[in-house]
């Protein structure tokens, strides 16, 4: 009798578990959208725009709140996410900085591969720009001038691992030209350096420099993109400019804490798949010059693996120390 009762109980529990799994996951309390910059930073602005579109499109039954966790170039936000292992109401918006951080920082205790991939959303393309009255009309003009005047021209940007500096290194190796790199921590300082004539070249997102492009105080000479942005269709990519260097992709998307339940991952993949198909989302991307590149979790994991392999190879080639 006892064995029959135990068997019946186990069967009932299994049936209940199967029923719960079939019902799937839906958020029941406010959702956190974690970003690694402070208010007003690029990731923060992107997160708030995305959240507004999710809300206006009624894609969630609950509210989502942007949570700023700046510090360590993304390390603080990644650690915050990792501490919420198995949590289904916390997401984060990554940039490719999250993917490459573990390559060069021994202190980076959380790596991108430790997190749960949900969806890539966009390609983050950039422009190579010079001052509006500079003599360089094309990237080839700038590189040729750098050949004739070694190390006399200057490029400004972020850290030595920033995409702008990696492109500089690749272009120098490809062409034999040489020019200096002057890092500044903020985009405003970099723009001011070019406008003031202290630097001659800058790699920046269109959104950062839109007003200067419209006023003609900055001029694009090449695009750092796989394909040309529609708003700058007349400007060639680095490769179209005649330089045999690899394209360095930069992406933005969504990851979740480690160990998020499968049904929750599938739910969030569905939310962002619906967002990616919406007209308001496409309109927003056109307005801010971002390229749509929606890929689900499995595809994102593969993209990240390929990205890290490319960066490891390039870092090794140009002399940036790799610790992993």
What does this structure look like?
With 324 residues, the chain is an alpha/beta fold. The protein has two domains: 166 residues, 3-Layer(aba) Sandwich (D-Maltodextrin-Binding Protein, domain 2); 104 residues, 3-Layer(aba) Sandwich (D-Maltodextrin-Binding Protein, domain 2), CATH 3.40.190.10. The protein is 44% helix and 19% strand. The chain contains eleven helices and eleven strands. The strands form two sheets. The protein has a six-stranded mixed β-sheet with strand order 2-1-3-10-4-11, sandwiched between helices. The protein has a five-stranded mixed β-sheet with strand order 7-6-8-5-9, with helices on both faces. About 4% of the residues have low confidence.
Kindly estimate the percentage of residues that lie in beta strands according to DSSP: 15-25%
The structure class reads alpha/beta
CATH topology of the largest domain: D-Maltodextrin-Binding Protein, domain 2
Terminal Cα span: 59 Å
Outline:
44% of the residues lie in helices and 19% in strands.
Keywords:
324 residues; alpha/beta; D-Maltodextrin-Binding Protein, domain 2; 6-stranded mixed sheet; 5-stranded mixed sheet; 11 helices; globular
């Amino acid at each position: 009798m006892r064995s029959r009762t135990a068997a019946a109980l186990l069967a009932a529990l299994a049936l209940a578990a199967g029923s719960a799994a079939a019902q799937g996951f839906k958020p029941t309390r406010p959702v956190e959208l974690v970003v690694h910059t402070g208010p007003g930073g690029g990731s923060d602005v992107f997160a708030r725009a995305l959240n507004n579109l999710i809300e206006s499109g009624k894609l969630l039954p609950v509210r989502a709140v942007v949570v700023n966790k700046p510090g360590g170039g993304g390390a603080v936000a990644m650690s915050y996410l990792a501490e919420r292992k198995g949590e289904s109401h916390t997401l984060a918006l990554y940039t490719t900085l999250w993917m490459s951080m573990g390559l060069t920082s021994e202190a980076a205790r959380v790596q991108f591969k430790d997190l749960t991939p949900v969806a890539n959303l966009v390609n983050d393309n950039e422009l190579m720009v010079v001052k509006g009255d500079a003599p360089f009309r094309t990237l080839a003009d700038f590189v040729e001038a750098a050949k004739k005047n070694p190390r006399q021209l200057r490029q400004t940007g972020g850290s030595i691992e920033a995409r702008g500096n990696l492109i500089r290194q690749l272009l120098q190796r490809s062409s034999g030209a040489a020019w200096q790199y002057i890092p500044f921590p903020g985009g405003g300082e970099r723009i001011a350096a070019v406008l003031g004539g202290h630097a001659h070249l800058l790699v920046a997102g269109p959104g950062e420099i839109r007003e200067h492009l419209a006023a003609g105080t900055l001029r694009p000479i090449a695009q750092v993109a796989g394909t040309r942005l529609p708003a700058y269709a007349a400007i060639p990519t680095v490769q179209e400019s005649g330089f045999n260097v690899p394209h360095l992709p930069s992406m933005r998307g969504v990851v979740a804490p480690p160990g998020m339940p499968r049904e929750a991952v599938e739910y969030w993949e569905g939310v962002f798949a619906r967002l990616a198909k919406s007209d308001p989302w496409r309109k927003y991307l056109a307005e801010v010059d971002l390229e749509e590149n929606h890929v689900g979790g499995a595809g994102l994991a593969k993209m990240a693996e390929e990205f890290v392999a490319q960066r490891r190879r390039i870092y090794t080639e140009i002399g940036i120390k790799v610790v992993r």
